Amino acid sequence: MEVDIRGILPQTLIDYPGNVSTIIFTGGCNMRCPFCHNFELATEPEKFEKIPEQQVLDYLDERKKFIDGVVITGGEPTLWMPALKGFIERIRERTGLLVKLDSNGLNPNALKELFPVIDYIAMDVKAPEKHYSEATGVPIDMSKIRESIRLIMGSGVEYEFRTTVVPAFIPQDEFADVVSLVEGAEKYCLQQYNAVKKEGPLSKAYEPKVLRQFEEIAKKKVKKTCIRGI
């Protein structure tokens, strides 16, 4: 089995902190977040041309002098274990590039296997626990989310947790409950929500001043914070 690769973005300056990187998009996801900006990639990856692993490796080999790293995102990349681990190993062996993984944290066993071959991991923390299934569009076993958080914090791999702050799933008076899930973390980032709908609950985003208020709450529970998108 190969990793289901459905897209490549040649260069980004913002997706891997401190590094110029190429993004590799995998198809499919085990969540159905209604605010997802890659919803078709997650739910109907067959709409996008599949790119063979060897073609991606050749492409990265050609670009390795111009970039520092690779971001593997989706969808949810861990769906493609164990092939994903082998693919990352080949990237590292052939190019020497740094590898960052984006994950929703629903597969802690996969993350544990991947820590030895990645340099950075970003895990999305979607909502307060009581709204998690609503925010992800599927029933969620929160023990898996908490286990992934625990494993990441103890992995020795550079990491961040991040939350796209969607008002429909994160009421203002419940934001502290989100941060409580990652209390003690090295880095936690708030991301401004860009509305995916023109009407209804998903058409609303918080004002930047609210995100700054949320950041002040987060600073009391984590070591480093940031806000993106405002």
Describe the structure.
This protein is α/β, with parallel strands linked by helices and 230 residues long. The chain has a single domain, classed as Aldolase class I (TIM Barrel), CATH 3.20.20.70. Helix content is 31%, strand content 23%. The chain has eight helices and eight strands. Strands 1-2-3-4-5-6-7-8 form an eight-stranded mixed beta sheet. Strand 6, helix 7 and strand 7 form a beta-alpha-beta unit. Helix 2 runs parallel beside helix 3 and helix 4 packs parallel to helix 6. The longest helix has 13 residues. It starts with a strand and ends with a strand. The model has no long low-confidence stretch (mean pLDDT 96).
Q: Give me the secondary-structure category.
A: alpha/beta
CATH level-four homologous superfamily name: Aldolase class I
Please tally the β strands and state the result: 8
- For the terminal residues, how far apart are their CA atoms? 41 Å
Helices and strands in order, then pairings?
Blueprint: E1 5-16, E2 19-26, H1 39-43, H2 53-63, E3 69-73, H3 83-95, E4 98-103, H4 108-114, E5 120-124, H5 132-136, H6 142-153, E6 158-165, H7 175-180, E7 188-192, H8 208-219, E8 225-228
Parallel strand pairs: 2-3, 3-4, 4-5, 5-6, 6-7, 7-8
Antiparallel strand pairs: 1-2
Helix pairs in contact: 2-3, 4-6
